[in-house]
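Lab notebook, design round three. We kept the backbone fixed and only want residue identities now. Task for the bench partner: fill in a sequence for the structure below.
Input structure tokens:
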């Protein structure tokens, strides 16, 4: 059995004291040898953590010990190695950044659809199926027939909705079609469906537990999923049964790389890939090459190049401080 339990978790719930929760949560995770990233905001908590099974389960119990987080959602998978280099607990304005104020995801989210019922819903030709993940995530896998909004970040989603809400668009305001949305673990869907409902759309559905729960629950022979699912840790992607996939990360631009990408003459490990070749300054390239030398030295010594836990820092002053 794999050594490390990975838990993706979130909950939309008012946390007026979220700033005070940061340091105790960081220390509790560190004491239980748990790494990953947790985001705290006034609207709730979001993140993915990994570590020894007993450590991760202790953190989940600790979080649910707060009555406000008793119903915390989490999804489990396993990794052969620790998929995170560090532990980070961050303060944010939003636990998933859309940039639209007063979206009440905890009360306005659309109707949950269980993974085992999802195929029937998205098979209906009258239902508009929307992948609310970012473009680079959609590129390596999605549901058959799903619409790709081609967003580079979740903050672009409201603008795409406004464009498609015009006459003749996929979300024509006059017709108000039935809409089914999905994302990696469910959190972006809760906010995006709440946003659509705030715009007057009544029949809005989302995949409960996201793609990860679907891949864990639905047998591959019955699946409508094509490709792999991008995950925000060192596994990079997973397939059915949440088994680690075949993608790796470009250390220069952080985009997922297929075997074909790595075979490209534009690929240089740790320095550039077909997605980012020619976009870096000479100073950046110098730093990437210096870093890659250290990575290769650590590899020869059979050690990790980086991995120490990051100490708690003062609250970030902007959404980009993540």
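Proposed sequence:
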């Amino acid at each position: 059995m794999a050594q490390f339990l990975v838990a993706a978790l979130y909950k939309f719930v008012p946390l007026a004291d979220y700033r005070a929760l940061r340091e105790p949560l960081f220390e509790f995770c560190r004491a239980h040898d748990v790494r990953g990233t947790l985001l705290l905001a006034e609207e709730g908590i979001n993140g993915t953590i990994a570590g020894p099974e007993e450590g991760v389960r202790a953190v989940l119990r600790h979080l649910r010990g707060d009555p406000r987080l008793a119903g915390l959602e989490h999804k489990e998978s396993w990794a052969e190695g620790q998929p995170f280099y560090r532990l980070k607990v961050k303060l944010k304005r939003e636990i998933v950044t859309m940039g639209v104020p007063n979206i009440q995801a905890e009360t306005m989210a659309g109707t949950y659809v269980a993974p085992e019922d999802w195929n029937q819903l998205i098979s209906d030709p009258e239902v508009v199926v929307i992948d609310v993940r970012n473009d680079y995530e959609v590129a390596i896998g999605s549901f058959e027939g799903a619409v790709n909004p081609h967003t580079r970040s979740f903050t672009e989603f409201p603008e795409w909705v406004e464009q498609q809400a015009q006459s003749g668009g996929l979300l024509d305001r006059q017709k108000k079609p039935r809409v089914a949305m999905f994302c990696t673990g469910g959190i972006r869907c809760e906010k995006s469906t709440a946003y659509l409902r705030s715009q007057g759309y009544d029949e809005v559905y989302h995949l409960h537990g996201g793609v990860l729960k679907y891949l864990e629950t639905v047998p591959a022979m019955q699946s409508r999923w094509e490709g792999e699912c991008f995950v925000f840790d060192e596994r990079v992607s997973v397939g059915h049964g949440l088994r680690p996939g075949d993608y790796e990360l470009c250390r220069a631009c952080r985009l997922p790389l297929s075997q074909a990408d790595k075979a490209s003459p534009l690929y240089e490990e740790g320095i550039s890939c077909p997605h980012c070749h020619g976009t870096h300054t000479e100073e950046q390239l110098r730093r990437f090459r210096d870093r890659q030398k250290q990575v290769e030295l650590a590899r020869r010594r059979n050690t990790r190049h980086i991995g120490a836990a990051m100490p708690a820092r003062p609250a970030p002053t902007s959404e980009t401080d993540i």
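Keep this in mind before ordering anything: The chain has ten helices and 15 strands.
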